[in-house]
Known about the structure:
Strand order of the largest sheet: 1-2-4-3-5-6-7-8-9
CATH class: Alpha Beta
Helix content: 25-40%
Largest sheet: 9 strands, mixed
CATH topology: Rossmann fold
Amino acid sequence: MKIVSNGVQLHVEQRGAGAPALVFLHYWGGSSHTWRHVIDALALSHRTIALDQRGWGRSPAATTGYALEDLANDAQAVINELDLESYILVGHSMGGKVSQLLASRRPRGLIGLVLVAPAPPSPMAVPLDVRQGMVHAYDTRESIIATVKQVLAPGSLAPEDLEAVITDSLAGAPAAKRAWPLEGSQEDISAALSRINVPVLVVSGEDDRVDPPAVLRRELLSRISQAQLVVLPGVGHLSPLEAPAQLATIITAFALGVTKQGLSLPPGNGEVALSPCIDCGVMRLAALSAGRARKS
């Protein structure tokens, strides 16, 4: 499916049925394909929408328009075109920062926000020379493999997932590859976060070397009073590929919580421990989300 936003024909993948709908935004270097394992588990119970952000996947490049506002406008255009009445934004890394900005606008129909290894709202604390080097991280197969193994997923990916990452990263348009490390990652949207008025769940990998839990506690959770944090043991930055089953369970629980009215939990910003029992963990997260939904 193609949906036009500001002259760009965005590629959109849509599967499943059931409310609330789940709208997925990918990381810098990825595409809608990054979410395939998670969506495989969720499309049986939810309508899922995943888009290739401009310059990535099967969405064509634009010569300009890669600021966070542009990417948020693209996501909003997809939501408007599909006339979603009730949906949850699920944003990963760069897509997480875009989701924060979009949620701060309080768009009609948004009922929850899941931020997966999100870039924080404040500027990335990385020197310019390092960010200039990031521009070339996806130039070749060899540089992509090194980036994955050294930074994104040190615990390794399944061979087919690594190949998918290589394909996505090589396909990125030069303008899109430059825009995030040099511009988008440095935008400061911290002030906007106080306007977010829906339940928020932040999912972080314990071994994330890009946006580790400590950074998210300081830069993100401190600015969203209703946010809760889940830390995935032994997982790096690419949790949609490293731990898709866990992530799907967490999203299912959150969606259940924000739509279910009979559960409650004492208020308070903090962390949620994952139960080894999936059903128990789902119910605990559902109770948390329902309690936060009634407070917002």
